[in-house]
């Protein structure tokens, strides 16, 4: 499973980073850093990743098959 | 598929004066009846459960806002031109124009100032023995938001009342809404004057808007509605969250102790407060084309009522939903809405509420109830009207 991020939509609320800190991070400028952009989410991170997708307040994250 | 005559019906008025003060028992009955419940008094399909609320919020092409999100046609007409009341490209353009000033990214520069103001507010409150928690809760939004939006000093004394009225008229046209009309119009009239006479503070969001209008990026006539858009919802709502936090921690001393022991819980505590006592009850959406929700047919033109406050207490989504527990993962609460129309000011609301909790945790040993709290009456906003508490210094 991959997760796509719509960087234009992202406002930097940081809820994804709270849910899945190994996958998402906000850098010093509060810009989203997606550590697995374009690559598969490691199996042990799937639950946290899905929680991050559904927590994003502006629906900027999407689960891809 | 269920048709209209097969949909469960709930006859009591969830907007009666009594139901407004104590809505949760009604929401529980609605959730029990099913995922879609017809409210004959208001002629809407209520969505009391979490899954359907979220699905509708994410499908903004079928469930549109452009014909209004209120429960009455008068307000839906009057609110044309606002961000709340638009769809697609129009909405994206309106939202982007002001929301970029409200993202956590843009607000980082304000964090220190907000934290300092929160500390001063708590210090002042500690000088008195008993305080009204609602006054304490109002202080930070009132000192932060009008400056940010650029509202002139003149007229600020009316802002809370006007803001509350602007929400009240988004309910059904009941006595509550009708009483609020003069104050709702007061806000609109003042916003027009502010825009026309260019009374906005330099460098503020309002100033940005007027300059953009000068540059031809939008019409001057659009400015008042957009100013109201960002001013009205930013006071009462955050006030509600901060006051509810004070009330909940006063009545749940064990939870307060958890927060004192681990201030790292503060961001999630804010989510849990907003889940447990959601500042916004509900908004509606118009159904743009024939569709279905959870096996119930909804015809084009119908209205669906997204009950955020009920979704946030849905046992299908939350374990033990009627228990206030800052340790649960409350990040998925719908109190700020969700998706395209999700609250544009939630970054600011989180910043303010977290700053108040940080200031309290550092200075206050215990929060104790000092009399019965009273809830305020408003069709949309669920908030305390009076909250006698005692702050015991650390």
Automatic annotation (TrEMBL), chain A:
Q: Which PANTHER family match?
A: FERREDOXIN
Q: Keywords, A to Z?
A: 3Fe-4S, Electron transport, Iron, Iron-sulfur, Metal-binding, Transport
Cofactor(s) for this protein? Answer: [3Fe-4S] cluster
The keyword Zinc-finger is assigned to this record? no
Q: What does this protein do?
A: Ferredoxins are iron-sulfur proteins that transfer electrons in a wide variety of metabolic reactions.
Q: Which PROSITE patterns match?
A: 4FE4S_FER_2
Q: What InterPro entries does this protein's entry cite? A: 3Fe4S_ferredoxin, 4Fe4S_Fe-S-bd, Fe-S_cluster_ET
**GO-annotated molecular function:** 3 iron, 4 sulfur cluster binding; electron transfer activity; iron ion binding
Is Iron there in the keyword field?
yes
Q: What is this protein called?
A: Ferredoxin
Residue span(s) of domain 4Fe-4S ferredoxin-type = 1-29
UniProtKB/TrEMBL annotation, chain B:
Is Iron among this UniProt entry's keywords? yes
UniProt entry tagged with the keyword Heme: yes
Signal sequence span is none
Show the Pfam families listed in the entry: p450
UniProt KW keywords: Heme, Iron, Metal-binding, Monooxygenase, Oxidoreductase
In the record, what terms sit under GO molecular function? heme binding; iron ion binding; monooxygenase activity; oxidoreductase activity, acting on paired donors, with incorporation or reduction of molecular oxygen
- Can you tell me which family this protein belongs to? Belongs to the cytochrome P450 family.
What protein name does the entry list?
Cytochrome P450
Species name? Kutzneria buriramensis
